[in-house]
Design brief:
Distance between the termini: 25 Å
Shape: globular
Strand order of the largest sheet: 4-1-6-5-8
Structural class: alpha/beta
Radius of gyration: 16 Å
Largest sheet: 5 strands, mixed
Length: 217
């Protein structure tokens, strides 16, 4: 991973500019996701994907709203666009940059290698006004109480009785990062490089530091 000078005082515009320059130089693709919490910072907005995303065990995963950044689009604008398209919500307050996540091994459907994922977070203060799924891509959406240990026990593939099944592990860790960022304005963003897709099921090293908010798994 390249040396990155990222801190919690950088503006969204600065993050947007740095991410675009970084991906242009490396010829990587870019994905964005956004964790939107209720004002208590305890309930987070999740979406359930449609049949196009079915895993090998027949489950259609839950995840945070998000997707790819279109050519010429700013990452933060892409996050808000995807949020609106997938859930009907718009303009969360206190939009923050939460994590810079690299996947050098990733291969896109177009054959390009490498991807940068930017995670944003914010707070919905509209009481979910206008919330709705967007089938067939998104078949369900809603705010769910984030309980780290409960979510880590939700199956990551297939179907189960738990209402959030399946829930791939990296969504749990990314939600945790976003919650930590919103609860502690002094926390630094998490920077992490995944070595493989299997590595995404493991806790990030970045969750073990930062202004007294430490989690052990």
């Amino acid at each position: 991973m390249a040396n990155l000078f990222l801190n919690n005082s950088m503006s969204i515009y600065e993050i947007d500019s740095l991410a675009r320059k970084y991906c242009s130089e490396k010829q990587w693709g870019m994905g964005i996701f956004i964790a939107v919490f209720d004002p208590s910072i305890n309930d987070v907005l999740l979406v359930k994907t449609g049949q196009y995303a079915m895993d090998a065990d027949g489950g259609t995963p839950w995840n945070l709203p998000g997707g790819g950044v279109e050519p010429g689009e700013l990452p933060s604008h892409a996050a808000l666009r995807e949020l609106k398209e997938e859930t009907g919500l718009s303009s969360p307050s206190g939009l923050r940059f939460a994590a810079w996540l690299e996947r050098p091994y990733f291969r896109s459907r177009w054959g390009t290698t490498g991807e940068l994922v930017i995670l944003f977070c914010g707070v919905d203060r509209t009481n979910g006004s206008g919330l709705r799924p967007a089938p067939p891509e998104i078949v369900q959406c809603g705010f769910y109480h984030f309980n780290l240990h409960e979510w880590l026990n939700v199956p990551s593939k297939g179907n189960d009785n738990h209402p959030l099944s399946p829930l791939p592990r990296h969504w749990v860790y990314w939600t945790l990062i976003a919650q930590m960022m919103l609860k502690d304005p002094k926390m630094f963003p998490v920077i992490h490089e995944y070595s493989s897709s299997e590595d995404m099921a493991l806790p990030l090293e970045g969750l073990n530091y930062g202004w007294g908010l430490n989690y052990k798994f």
